[in-house]
Amino acid sequence: MYIPRGGAATTPAVREQTARVRAARERVPRNVYALGFVSLLTDVSAEMITSVVGYYLLVYLQVSTITVGFLDGLYSAIPVLLSLTAAYLADRYQRRKLLAGIGYGLSAVSKLGFPVVGRSVSGLGLVQGADRLGKGLRTAPRDALISLSTPASIQGRAFGVHRTMDTVGAFLGPLIAVVALGLSVAATAFDAVFVVSFCIATIGLLALLLLVADHREPAATPRKVPFRAALGLLADKEFRRVCLAATVLGVAWISDTFIYLVIQQRLALTAVQYALLAVGTSGSYLLLAVPAGRIADRIGRWRVFLCGHLALLVVYLLLAGPFGGPVLVCVTLAVHGFFYAMTDGVLMAHAGPMLPRELRTAGLALLQSVRALGAFVSSLAFGFAWSVMGSREVVGGYVVALLLALVAAACLVHPEKGTVPRP
Predict the structure, then answer these.
(1) Structurally, what CATH architecture does the domain formed by 29-215+224-412 represent?
(2) 99: Cβ contacts below 8 Å, ≥ 6 apart
(3) Domains in the chain: boundaries
(4) In terms of Cα–Cα distance, which of 121, 51, 58, 48 is closest to 268?
């Protein structure tokens, strides 16, 4: 009997088994969905606050744009203080779920601080700082769990699935905030948002404890690496270039708070209308997150990441232009969502396989930290510039800054570099 080349490997039964194995490798793991559900609930809670905090500060409390810029920058920079140390400990002792849980819990408790501190700017800084410390503790361990649970070939898809579920929460959060504002009397409207946000964040923490599995290497595999090894990741030329490019782009990034405040100023929106702006961004992000991840896996994650910043450039041009109206706002928010879909999870998917498994969490935390430092500088600069000139002129300046940052990022990192998975 003639046996084709490859022998038994070509029989129908073996081909079917091979197809099943390949399909299993291409399937997004259950742990990613569990982490996505936790992030969904947490983002409902977080976006309830984010969707109203700019209006709460600038219109309700009537603080200066410099103060808004400082608090907004603090919101971005605080995670830097703990994220790298926490991520290193998570890698060293393989307790990524524990560190993530502490972070989720701290962020949940911080929500109750808003009604307690009232109009105190220093108190608001402490509350936002506590929330961001929680984010600094949880983000890198969470992303490392996604990366370590997923085959290298579908990292972009896995992060896309997670970010889609995360964005469902970001989409629902502002809507729930609108309901809370609408059902409350004016004097207690914002307090109602803060309390409901705390309750939902607590449910998210319980979901993490019950549904998410930690990832630990076999007993003989882990290496007790020193802390300097985490910082030593920057010795890798390609990873260092990715960190530098992300930082430069972060300096040219206008935060959501300021983008929404520019729109609010132009259209004189109410608190409820302002809260709905985040729905537009989240809606387009939700539609594109998984397709962006799939495309990134096929054509290159860095290419998609840079294209996402081109979408952000379009947002700046729309905000800096002389036109207004609901249609323009809808277009701006839709393109803003495209930016997040093509950058948020895509950057982590690009960097994850570059890093050794035993330092995956620390490496992602380092990348997030330097990017957050860039965002901190950006928010301070935007708030100060807005205090001395019009918002349209400031956005115009950021158009130039983002163009220069894109050129620098394209020169620093080549799409084909840094994509070979580490063991």
Answers:
(1) Up-down Bundle (1.20)
(2) 86, 87, 89, 90, 137, 138, 141
(3) 29-215+224-412
(4) 58
Residues 6+ apart with CB under 8 A from 336: 256, 259, 280, 281, 284, 311, 312, 315
Q: Decide: 163 and 292 in contact? Cβ < 8 Å.
A: no
pLDDT, one tens digit for every residue, the chain (423 residues) = 444 444 445 566 545 555 454 544 568 889 999 999 999 999 899 888 888 878 877 777 777 788 888 777 766 666 666 677 777 777 777 788 888 899 899 888 888 887 787 667 778 778 877 887 888 788 778 888 888 888 877 887 888 888 888 888 888 988 898 888 877 655 557 788 888 999 999 999 999 999 998 876 655 444 555 567 667 788 888 889 999 999 999 999 998 889 999 998 888 888 888 888 988 888 888 888 778 888 888 888 899 999 999 999 999 999 988 777 888 888 999 999 999 989 887 888 888 888 887 777 778 878 888 888 888 889 889 989 998 888 889 999 999 999 999 999 999 987 654 444 444
